[in-house]
């Protein structure tokens, strides 16, 4: 039995997301990953906006996506976000994008984030951030 | 005989600009208008980056585009930018987008810009900006 | 007393929508207009996807937006879409974007759409489309 | 001594590419990778548009980017594209993004592409494609 379930949120594909192949342009999946982690933070009671207000920024240092099956215009998708790790090296999130049934995987990926302070210096994730992320990881 | 000719620059359409109708998604034309006015500023010897470094910002207050004929993937387009006016109300630019021959119009539009200082206050366009724009308008 | 109320839907601003001025990049408002009309069509019981399945396409022929006040990262906005007209010349929608209170206007605009058949020919809006739009306009 | 040098092309960063952190939004780097491989194909004498006209499509099946140092508004960047492999499994390209000096690496990544025919079926890269790619790989 899994001791951990990721956070889920949804998105409706618009025309502006698609390309001439008739499916969503691959770069736009990374926008979905952003939606996923933003909504997960909100659900944890600490929005990313609040994190920035405390002087902590989480710029993306690595991004990866494997495109499993194409997504069409007007499709309703489910973005699952999972906290992979939050250690001295930064924070990593995994993502699984499902179709509207929540059962067929359409993409998988991850993003790594550095933890940076107001002076642009790389820093360890502060306690308030690790505590919020630990809520979900239990 | 025209006493004035606008500034011209070019752009190559990528897959990411298109949508499932097989043509460029309409919102992306406004990115072209930005390319047009940026390159015109550079050509005048005053980049928009330099304008911001002097504490002046030109946020878009109105944008309009008439889409005359569709643009396909890999098309090479010409963006013509014309200084319409620079008065106390702000700055206005007109744009004509041509196909690669420079003879067929594919879109026409304009953007209006407020002139804002570092404190976010609307201000009159300063002399250095009006002088630069006047070079082209002669 | 207004005999007509537009359709309302919502959107949460992501990082990818903003630009270095710290607010939403102007071209992205036209994506919101698309969300507005798509969700209005869905609410009328006729999705834009279904319209295309019947061989009718509504490419944007004109787009306009007046940017009244800036929108920040993580803002929750309300997009109101109003059917302006649907006659032989095509279809026109008006949009008002409100902040989360639904009372402060942050942008206003419109889009005009040609009505095109599967052969790419401009055609009059068919009865099924006019009927659906008339539901809202009563 | 390197027996192989990748193809290089350039791009000027616009406002619409940046986000509120004042740097280019990470998802937009994948647009640069597309520009890189498109211009490399053009340079090989076989544009991607021509590949599609022959009934072959190369949808992205995996995309990765490591963001080494941030890119600012108006920066002029160099995109280097290297053909990594073209075998029965598809095609893979590597990318290095440099600053305008061509010496400082600002990002590195790759994209994998399936090779698909007009019926949407995965197929081996045809001879005309392998021949074109081999020109560069010699």
Counting H and I runs of at least 4 residues, what is the number of helices of chain A?
A: 3
* Class inferred from helices and paired strands of chain A: alpha+beta
Order of helix and strand elements from N to C terminus of chain A = EHHEEEEEEH
**CATH fold title of chain A:** Thiol Ester Dehydrase, Chain A
Which pair of chains forms the biggest interface, and how many residues does each contribute?
Answer: A-D, 20 and 19 residues
In CATH, the architecture of chain A is: Roll
Distance between the termini of chain A: 14 Å
Description:
Chain A has one domain: Hotdog Thioesterase (Thiol Ester Dehydrase, Chain A, Roll). Helices cover 23% and strands 35% of the residues of chain A. The first copy, chain A, contains 3 helices and 7 strands. In chain A, the strands form 2 sheets. The first copy, chain A, has a 5-stranded antiparallel sheet. Chain A has a two-stranded antiparallel ribbon with strand order 2-7. The longest helix of chain A is centred in the N-terminal third of the chain and has 15 residues, at 29-43. Chain A is elongated, with a radius of gyration of 16 Å. The two termini of chain A are 14 Å apart. Strand 3 (60-67) of chain A pairs antiparallel with strand 3 of chain D, so a sheet runs across the interface.
């Amino acid at each position: 039995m899994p001791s951990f379930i990721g956070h889920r949120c949804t998105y409706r594909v618009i025309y502006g997301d698609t390309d001439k192949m008739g499916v969503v342009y691959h770069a736009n999946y990374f926008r979905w990953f952003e939606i996923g982690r933003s909504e997960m933070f909100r659900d944890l009671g600490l929005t990313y906006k609040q994190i920035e207000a405390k002087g902590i920024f989480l710029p993306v240092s690595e991004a990866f996506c494997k495109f499993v099956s194409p997504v069409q215009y007007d499709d309703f998708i489910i973005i699952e976000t999972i906290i992979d790790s939050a250690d001295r090296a930064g924070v990593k999130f995994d993502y699984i994008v499902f179709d509207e049934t929540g059962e067929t995987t359409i993409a998988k990926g991850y993003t790594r984030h550095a933890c940076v302070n107001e002076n642009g210096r790389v820093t360890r994730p502060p306690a308030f951030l690790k505590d919020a992320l630990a809520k979900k990881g239990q």
